[in-house]
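hey so u asked for the seq, here:
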Amino acid sequence: MAKQIDNNAGGTADITVHERQPDGLLEEVVPPSGGAWGGTAIDDAYLRFLEKVFGEKVVQDLKLKELEDYTELIHEFEVKKRSIKTDTTTDIVITMPVGLMNIIKKHCGGIDAAIKKSQHSDSISVSGQQKICVNPQKFRDLFKSTINSLLKHLEQLFRHPKVSDIQHIIMVGGFSECELVQRAMKDAFPKKKIIIPEEAGLVVLKGVVLYGYQPEKINKRILKKTYGIQSWPEWDSEVHPETKRVRIEGTDRCKDVFYKFAVKGEKVESGHSYGQIFQALKPDERTFECTVYISDDTNPRYVTDPSCQRLGNLIVPLPPLQKGQSLEIEETMIFGGTELLFRAKNMKTGEIYETQFQF
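ran it, structure tokens below
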């Protein structure tokens, strides 16, 4: 069985590790990970560079008052950052939109004056009326922090016992087309085979389309969160704090208890379900609220814990009940390819209510 790391470096870096099974299906090895180490981070570094040259007010005004020119500036930078190479020796020429030139003139007295006052005056110059030339090394410096963060994360990931034997890294996404990123990956991991498909920027889109037709190809995933619901068990003085005690229909209960269905780090097969039957506690209520929570912890106690977050809820209509009658609701979580199906079933009538969440 072959393992591979998929590094989707586009706006952000999204890293997954898959193992190909004998039947050709893919199985996640560790939970997906990543961070802000993609093309968007380089865009931010470029804007900070412009702020140091022309001032924060110039960049702010460009965003607020000349949005079309701002978009044009970022688009041109997108082209330049894909073309820069480790051995580039000529200056990087960037065309400045008219709106930006006017803003620079307003706040700085002109582009020449702004550059002369800048701390980067030795690495940037003016060419013609609307172009600046940036020293290639200064331009490459914009990539350093982001690339180093990406490499550091991958180095840590390779220390994981389930990942240490991986020999193939597949790079996809627009940022993967940048030669600086490609060279850094090859230098950092010389013993691993780096695979970069043609038109790496389009591979993600193609993959989404293919997955739409064949979602069963990835049949097992690793949960990034713990999933559960809010429950109200009978109050136990040895387990539950006094602050959580409430009285419902003559019985002391503990509110806000996190009832776990699936645990962070658990490997789940597509279509696998977890279910539990709960009882409607108040016969006079006309609805039953099923609330789904997620947590970064593997063993959260209460849905009010700092690690917990409300994912959503499902409202189930209840029929009128006589005093002393009870009604059971079966709550089920079904994990699909990328979606969580949450289902509530009225055990008396058989009625089913459903909603979906991304996971």
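The chain has eight helices and 20 strands. The CA atoms of residues 129 and 272 lie 63 Å apart.
lmk if thats what u needed
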